[in-house]
Amino acid sequence: MSNIIATLPKVDLCRDFAASVSGAHLRERAGKKGAKLTTWRTFDSVKEFRQSLAAVRKSLNAPGHFEQAAVHILENLIERSIVHTEFHVDPLASNVPIDKQLARIENGYEIVADEYEEALVSFGFILELDRGADPAAQRNAIDAAIESSKRVLGVAFVGPETALNKPQLELAEYCRSKDLRLIISAGYEPGSKGIHDAVALKVDRVLHGFGVLKHNDALTQLRARRTPFVCTPTIEVQSGRAKSYARHPIAKMAEAGLFCTFASGAPVLFSGSLTSEFEHLSVHLGWRLDQ
Description:
Blueprint: H1 2-7, E1 10-16, H2 23-30, H3 46-58, H4 63-79, E2 82-89, H5 98-115, E3 122-130, H6 135-148, E4 152-158, H7 166-177, E5 181-186, H8 193-201, E6 205-208, H9 216-224, E7 228-231, H10 233-238, H11 250-255, E8 259-262, H12 274-285
Parallel strand pairs: 1-2, 2-3, 3-4, 4-5, 5-6, 6-7, 7-8
Helix pairs in contact: 4-5, 5-6, 6-7
């Protein structure tokens, strides 16, 4: 099935921008420090995953890095028949201001579009809002991002899953006023605060969604609203949130009537791809191509 999947048009709804660059490309640019970059793939907990992701993001520390990365990533998407991608970007993670990041990524896109005139590739940006960061700084970054690029589609509350506080709820309302989608990471850590926030905010998308089956009221409301759930299977298995691919809750979530799909998340961290996610679930869950 992998050969069929590889050539079919695909959509990747959760893909960290920095973690979409291949390990070889990052190591080549890092030079002598490149040998240390293999540690990115050793995460086996939620905490270590976040540390690995932070390390990869910090490797893009100059405006030109974002342009080079964009060329590399978009060529790879074309090769893998991924026709639409939503790149997650933490606007406060780099010393390069977010508006300059997005502008240089756009430059990279123009280079690829000129070279591959008939290729179909589109993308947008989801700004990640870490629950532990300063909402005022995040709001300023959001303003700079949407002023710089029309590709900013939404924001995603991520990080340690404490209940959103008043400033964060006000920030969510501000994002709504700017016509941005609201996305929330819920269930990547044990507990249910993220799920309850997802219901209260009437979010447009839930990432991960582990634990929703234990909360009937939340399940009923999110199912009735047809709220999409986007899982990242390999990340969830490797970080220990799912016991295995065969026991990944996406199957029971789908059986419960939730609108579920999956994404690559951060493919460089596990040397994977969206195609490999298709393959893992088809093998371990017994899903046919139509499923």
